[in-house]
Amino acid sequence: MTATATVTPQGTISLQTIAMPADTNWNGDIFGGWLVSQMDLAGAVAARRRAHGRITTIAIDGMVFHHPVHIGDVVTCFTTIEHIGNTSMKIRIEAWETGDPCREPVKLTDGLFTYVAIDEQGKPRLVPPEACPV
Ligand SMILES: CC(C)(COP(=O)(O)OP(=O)(O)OC[C@H]1O[C@@H](n2cnc3c(N)ncnc32)[C@H](O)[C@@H]1OP(=O)(O)O)[C@@H](O)C(=O)NCCC(=O)NCCS
User: Fold this and answer.
1) For the chain, what are the domain ranges?
2) What confidence tens digit (pLDDT) does each residue in 33-49 have?
3) Are 55 and 117 in contact (CB under 8 A)?
4) Measuring from atom 36 of ligand 1, which residue has the nearest CA?
5) Is the CB of 125 under 6 A from ligand 1?
6) Is residue 110 within a helix (H) or strand (E), and if so which, with residue range?
7) Residues 6+ apart with CB under 8 A from 73
8) If I label 25, which of 2, 50, 126, 132 is the partner at 20 to 30 A Cα–Cα?
9) For 13-107, which CATH superfamily applies?
10) What confidence tens digit (pLDDT) does each residue in 70-120 have?
11) What 8-state DSSP symbol labels residue 93?
C-alpha cells in the first residue's frame, strides 16, 4: 500500500459500481485496467457535463494504485475539476472502496486525467462558460 495524502474522499461522486468476477486478472485479483476504465468513465461524466457535449481523454498523469480491489468491493469514483484551459479540462479522480457504511472508506487510486472538448469532427473546441446554455 502507498501513503495517501487525504483520508477522506475529495470531490463529487461521478460513478459507483461493484467489482465483479469477470473483472479479475490471471491471479484472481481485480485487473488494474478495469479500475482505470472506471475512473476514465467517471471523469468523462464530469467533463461532458462541464463541456456541454463531446469530450475525449488526452492524458492520464500521476496514476497511483494505493490498495488492491477485491470481488464485491463497491468502487466509488470522485471527481474534482482542477483546471480549465482553452479546450482542455484537468480532472482529479479518486477511486475509493465504500461498500460498508460502518467502516472508513479505503482509498484505491488517484490520478489526474485530462479531457479535451471536441466537435463533431473530433477537433478541439473551446470549453464553454460554466453557465448552462439553456
Ligand atoms: C484530443 C485531440 C482531439 C486533441 O487534438 P490536438 O490537435 O492534439 O489538440 P491540441 O494540441 O490543440 O491540444 C488540445 C488541448 O490538449 C492539451 N494537451 C495536449 N497534449 C496534452 C498532454 N499530453 N497532456 C495534457 N494536455 C495536453 C493542450 O494543452 C490543449 O489544451 P488547451 O486548449 O486547454 O490549452 C487529439 O489529440 C486526439 O484525438 N487524441 C486521441 C484521443 C483519444 O482517442 N482518446 C481516447 C483514448 S482510448
Assistant:
1) 13-107
2) 999 999 999 999 999 99
3) yes
4) 58
5) no
6) strand 106-117
7) 18, 19, 30, 97, 99
8) 2
9) Hotdog Thioesterase (3.10.129.10)
10) 999 999 999 999 999 999 999 999 999 999 999 999 999 999 999 999 999
11) E
